[in-house]
């Protein structure tokens, strides 16, 4: 049996905030589900299976919280939980894609939520992903891990603190036009540079927030999608790749991967492009929603898309190339730097890419989008997932 065509026909997302004291975790899951089902124009009875995005448990303080959220997604459905760290959201959508492409189900719901703003110290939780003997005691966390990457990128490609601040200014400008974004206040270059240092060169305004909220996606087979949705977002390509778990393997003159770059992310994009039949990404892709929790990481994420040579993204950012009205808009939603409910952060990249293709992104819509890409990063900057979405089923 040939692989079936699959499309996104509906999505839903909360208006993300630091805390959501008005709703339990399970209620946040249901919030995303309700909005996605309404957007798709179907009821829960049409759902054949559920993929549940939840990672890691400690951020909400409940072990195996998918049991708590099961009723929010329909307890009588086959259900799979996925956890690939920050990449969980896109991994979950990819699993839903394969559920349908394989012929097993016709309609699949992908859902999840997080309450990162209520976990206390997220970086203490995230420290636990490192090797307990060799790395955890440093102590590593997401901030200093990626500050090391920033320093390396500076040395290799000439990125400066001002270049990092340009990313923040762009993303905040975009998020101000996205009613669901967590951080929506625009900032100036000087405000970013003057903000307190977290771990040099990353400053407070270079960093993503701790966000709370829910999200969901409805995927359908071609037969169902054509009946229910006037302009689906067709899943044309998916990719995955992982790199070494150990930080030390990405540093030094003999390291197989350079911590300045996102080499595995680049491989993941190339796999998605091959599946989608794309060979000239700079010409064939209209917009990108890239997982970049810190301002510096947007540069190596852009490099990994293949739309420019490694390090060239810094000069293109100077020229406004990646702005909302630029030649290649990156993160028109404001991106991870403005909204970060970890279990569904990468799902938001897919949702926002789909909204662009479906021409439903509102004030942050890029004109005439036909093809969009999305990415997710997880673990010790280790797991990478990518997707190509298009108005053309291929």
Q: Assign the structural class, choosing from mainly alpha, mainly beta, alpha/beta, alpha+beta, or little secondary structure.
A: alpha/beta
N- and C-termini, Cα separation: 18 Å
Rg, Cα atoms, Å: 19 Å
Inertia-based shape: globular
The averaged pLDDT comes out at: 95
Stretches with pLDDT under 50, minimum 5 residues: none
Count of alpha and pi helical runs:
13
Task: Kindly list the characteristics that best describe this protein.
single chain; 394 residues; alpha/beta; nine-stranded mixed beta sheet; two-stranded antiparallel sheet; globular
Task: Explain what the structure shows.
It is globular and about 55 Å long. The protein has helices at 25-40, 66-73, 88-101, 122-126, 142-157, 161-175, 189-194, 222-228, 263-276, 281-284, 297-305, 312-318, 342-358, and strands spanning 6-13, 49-53, 79-82, 107-115, 197-199, 202-203, 212-221, 233-242, 287-289, 371-378, 383-390. Helix 1 (25-40) runs parallel beside helix 2. The protein has 394 residues and is α/β, with parallel strands linked by helices. Helix content is 35%, strand content 18%. The longest helix is centred in the C-terminal third of the chain and has 17 residues, at 342-358. It contains 13 helices and eleven strands. Strands 3-2-4-7-1-8-11-10-9 form a nine-stranded mixed beta sheet, with helices on both faces. A two-stranded antiparallel ribbon has the order 5-6.
């Amino acid at each position: 049996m040939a692989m079936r065509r699959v499309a996104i026909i509906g999505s839903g997302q909360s208006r993300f905030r630091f805390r959501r004291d008005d709703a339990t975790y399970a209620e946040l899951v249901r919030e995303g589900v309700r909005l996605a089902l309404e957007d798709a124009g179907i009821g829960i009875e049409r759902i054949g299976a559920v993929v549940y995005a939840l990672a890691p448990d400690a951020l909400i303080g409940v072990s195996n919280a998918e049991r708590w959220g099961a009723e929010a997604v329909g307890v009588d459905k086959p259900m799979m939980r996925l956890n690939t760290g920050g990449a969980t959201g896109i991994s979950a959508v990819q699993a839903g894609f394969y559920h349908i492409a394989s012929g097993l189900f016709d309609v699949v719901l992908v859902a999840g939520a997080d309450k990162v703003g209520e976990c206390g110290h997220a970086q203490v939780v995230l420290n636990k992903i490192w090797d307990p003997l060799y790395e955890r005691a440093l102590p590593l966390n997401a901030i200093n891990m990626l500050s090391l990457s920033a320093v390396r990128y500076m040395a290799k490609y000439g990125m400066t603190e001002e270049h990092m601040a340009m990313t923040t200014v762009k993303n905040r400008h975009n998020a101000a036009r996205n009613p669901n974004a967590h951080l929506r206040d625009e900032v100036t270059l000087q405000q970013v540079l003057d903000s307190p240092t977290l771990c040099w060169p990353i400053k407070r305004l270079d960093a993503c927030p701790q966000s709370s909220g829910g999200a969901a996606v409805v995927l359908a087979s071609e037969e169902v999608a054509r009946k229910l949705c006037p302009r689906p977002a067709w899943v044309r390509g998916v990719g995955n790749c992982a790199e070494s778990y150990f930080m030390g393997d990405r540093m030094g003159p003999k390291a197989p991967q350079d911590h300045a770059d996102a080499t595995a992310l680049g491989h993941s994009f190339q796999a998605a492009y091959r599946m989608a039949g794309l060979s000239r990404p700079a010409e064939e892709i209209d917009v990108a929603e890239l997982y970049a929790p810190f301002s510096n990481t947007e540069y190596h994420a852009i490099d990994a898309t293949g739309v420019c040579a490694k390090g060239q993204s810094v000069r293109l950012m100077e020229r406004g190339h990646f702005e909302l009205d630029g030649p290649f808009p990156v993160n028109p939603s404001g991106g991870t730097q403005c909204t970060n409910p970890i279990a569904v952060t990468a799902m938001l990249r897919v949702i926002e890419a789909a909204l662009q293709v479906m021409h439903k992104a509102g004030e942050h819509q890029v004109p005439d989008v036909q093809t969009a890409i999305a990415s997710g990063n997880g673990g010790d900057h280790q797991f990478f997932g990518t997707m190509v979405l298009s108005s053309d089923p291929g």
